[in-house]
Amino acid sequence: MTTTLSAPEHAQPAPEAARKPRWVTPSVAGLLLGTGLLYLWDLAKTGWANDFYAMAAQAGTWSWKALFFGSLDPGNVVTVDKPPFSLWIMGLSGRLFGFSSWSLLVPDALAGVASVGLLYLAVRRLSGPGAGLLAGAGLALTPVAALMFRYDNPDAFLVLLLVAGAYCVVRALEHASTKWLLLAGVAVGFGFLDKMLQAFLVLPAFVLAYAVAAPTSLGRRIWQLFAAAGAVLVSAGWWIVVVALWPVADRPYISGSTDNTVLELAFGYNGLGRIFGEGRGGGGGGTFTPPAGVELPAGGRGFGGETGLTRLFSGEFGGEASWLLPAAVLGLVAGLWFTRRAPRTDRTRAALLLWGGWLVVTTLVFSYMSGIIHPYYTVALAPGIAATLGISARELWRGRANFAARTVLAVLLAVTAVWGFVLLARTPDWQPWIRYTLLVLGAAGVSALLFGADRLRRTGPAVAVLGLCGALLGTASFTLATAATAHSGGTPSSGPAVASGRGFGPGRFEEGQADTAVIDLLKTTTTKWAAAQSGAMQSAGLALSSGRPVLAIGGFSGSDPAPTLAQFQQYVADGDIHYYVAGGRGGFGGGRGTSGEIQTWVEQNFASQTAGSTTVYDLTKSIS
Predict the structure, then answer these.
(1) Which GO terms describe its cellular component (predicted)?
(2) Given this model, what pLDDT does residue 450 score?
(3) Which residues of 343-380 are buried (b: 16+ CB within 10 A; e: fewer)?
């Protein structure tokens, strides 16, 4: 960018080749230590976070087979409705350190620190340490990042793998390295094994950046990209092939699929169904049916409100990751404009194509997908926002002798401060002084830039600090509040405690609370499964609280055909299940299909008893 703004006659030197300023090392250390403190401090208050994934991680500590498949129980009846990469890491942590909330969540927190560090390294290599630090800080101080990196959803490892892929693309861009491009493909492939097709949203940006800017011939760029595509397929496909070749009778049912295959899950419920609104709440076919008491927004069936470019700025989405999004988009446009006459291999433009492409594609998909979408998905957008803004802001600052660059930089700061004020005003009772301080700092920084105060002797650093405070105060305060607030359930939200109730009302698909009397019963059992209950959203609490295996009938939603009635009857005949716990419900239809058949059979053949306030059936004592 500075090639156009400052019009130097010589080529811009590679940031890696320049002498590293003394402030870089302590700054990077402070960034990583601060991120670690933010993500690791008082993790215990989060408890099991999302009980659904915690239940599967627990099963993985009991059974290697359950760990490999991502099963919900060590008996391997049914899997989670996602691939198992994140469960592999959390399950191995539980095996190594003993299964607990700490061993479950620490890997996710460390993934967050690693993501921030890798983002810094990736941005630094093309745009220098200043841009890298801005990008790393931007990611660390995104509220949804503080939420997901302290949680056990697969999104934390998805971000780490995709940032690692981007770092590999950057290394490949430097010398047209086939090795690094193949490693980028491997990272994206393992991202697929974490959250399926969502990992592929970065591929257009990776391809565009390398195809345009790699310093080699067009023919070589093309075959290298095809080789990288092969690396994606191999690293994503090996697990799919193993599951497909494994005898169906000897493996768990693939939850969320309609035909018990991973590919149908990937391209159906977790793929095209998410984008085009044909998703289901688990296997068993049929259309999407919310539970009683939940009304979906008029604009879509995926819990995301109206589709369109305003989605990521409105409602619950706005506070998750949009704090720096307007400035990042404007910075991307400005950066591409100022580098329009630069050589094909210009490093700044290559960086903007890479991270800006990530930002644009992911934003458009999240804005217009009409299937199941949750606001916390936007954590996958955060690295693109942070890196794009870090690169563009740094280059505009370097070229601020040009009035156009200085004006654009002032606009970015003004937009960020105003939008931060709007977002903070959505929780008006929470620390109102922050949003007014944000406006004051933003106005002071904009004025300093427009009137050239940064060009006075020794005032440049002070103006830079003032601008950073004005830009980051809003998102930083919301991030700190997120980390200080306990979150749980399947649909967590960023923000302070006063905002944590935002969402879908009384039927927000949260896990149920296990009855202590039932837990005491389960702890006395010695059978293969202590109990069975419909839907993992309820049965997860039983397994986690009792430390005993529980069969989640029907998987996540209770609607998967696993186990069948005949299989369940055989388990009971073999003495493998001690109790059936009534009251189970899935997210999208517990009590119908196979789950309903099993419930009816139990009610007809076994006497009920009451444990606390819960109805329980002793499956070892038939009434016939």
Answers:
(1) plasma membrane
(2) 82
(3) eeebbbbbbbbbbbbbbbbbbebbbebbbbbbbbbbbb
